[in-house]
Design a protein that fits this description.
This protein is 26% helix and 35% strand. It contains five helices and six strands. The protein has a six-stranded mixed β-sheet with strand order 2-5-4-3-1-6. It binds a DNA duplex through loops.
Length: 139
Amino acid sequence: MKQFWLVKSEPSSYSWNQLLKDGSTAWTGVRNFQARNFLKQMQKGDCVLFYHSVTEKQIVGVARVKKTAFQDPTISESDWVAVELEPIRTLQKPVELSTIKADTALKQILLVRQSRLSVTPLTKAEFDRILGMSGRKNR
DNA sequence: GCCAACGTTGGC
DNA sequence: GCCAACGTTGGC
């Protein structure tokens, strides 16, 4: 079954534009057990919302899991993993954190409740609702 | 720049 | 095994 996720990045360290430019990227550097476990659960083809933290605080694009979890090449200790992500499309209208917080159906998502977690799961309903707010109908 | 939330570390 | 101290992240 297809799953839905949200990943965060500070635009200054890795931005959506960079991902577009790169065509795909290894999502490395996750050093949190909870986030790591989510990474491990990702399946090829899962949809991933891309959130810019700190300076923008908005969801800017939709990506897809291209490759499931593998050993994170940026660390020598084992058992930290990365996945490969590729961009699908840029949101016509970014969905701001304030918009999400103002929405009854979305204000309890993990992004809001646990703002420091860099990889979080979303339900299909939440995913669809965010896409609905992005200025275009689903897909 | 400040602070809250969370994770990690280390002393006991 | 508890908890204080500290570091980091991210929203405001």
